[in-house]
Design brief:
alpha+beta; 180 residues; 2 domains; five-stranded mixed β-sheet; 2,3-Dihydroxybiphenyl 1,2-Dioxygenase, domain 1; single chain; globular; 4 helices; four-stranded mixed β-sheet
């Protein structure tokens, strides 16, 4: 049996502000909303046709400040060009961005309006033993960023093509499934 990730539900204080950010800036669409658990409201958001919701907001967050129940939510984009489009949108919002390459990803970390940590990333062509992280220069063009990433991580443990890592993981998972 394999579990696949579906969604996260966040308690929110200012739902209109959060909805504006997640729909206008991050590109989610509201798929449903309604009352839940008495007088609370839940709003469901998704970018995937096959997922009713990837994120949901549950009104009634009591504490202020950064969430202390999770470090961040991570969202994958298809490629570096999509990541750059989103980085431009985030700059327009005057958000503090923390670009970090983990060798296997080019990531940008920031906080949503209620200080929940968010990571948007795309994959690099490589896999690297984790944890690993280096700040990357968002102004580098694609070719320069590829070269920089290879230079920074090529001596790291388990550095290699992403395809080899995936093939190894498929074999490992098949071995576990065969034990059932």
């Amino acid at each position: 049996m394999a579990l696949s990730w579906s969604h996260a539900v966040l308690f929110v204080q200012d739902e209109p502000r959060m909805l504006d950010f997640y729909t206008r800036v991050l590109g989610f669409q509201v798929t449903d909303e309604g009352p839940i658990a008495g007088d609370r409201k839940i709003t469901f958001l998704s970018q995937e046709a096959a997922e009713h919701h990837q994120v949901a907001f549950l009104a009634g967050r009591e504490e202020v400040g950064p969430s202390n129940s999770h470090a961040h939510l991570a969202f994958r984009v298809e490629d570096l060009s999509e990541l750059r489009v989103l980085i431009a949108r985030l700059h327009e919002e005057s958000l503090t961005l923390r670009p970090t390459s983990h060798g296997n990803t080019w990531s940008v970390y920031f906080q949503d309006p209620e200080q929940n940590g968010i990571e948007i990333f795309c994959d690099t062509p490589w896999q690297v033993k984790q944890p690993a992280g280096e700040t990357w220069d968002m102004s580098l063009d694609d070719e320069a960023l590829l070269a920089w990433t290879r230079e920074k991580f090529q001596d790291a443990e388990r550095f290699g093509p992403q395809e080899e890592f995936i093939a190894r993981r498929e074999r490992e998972l098949a071995a576990v499934d065969g034990d059932d």
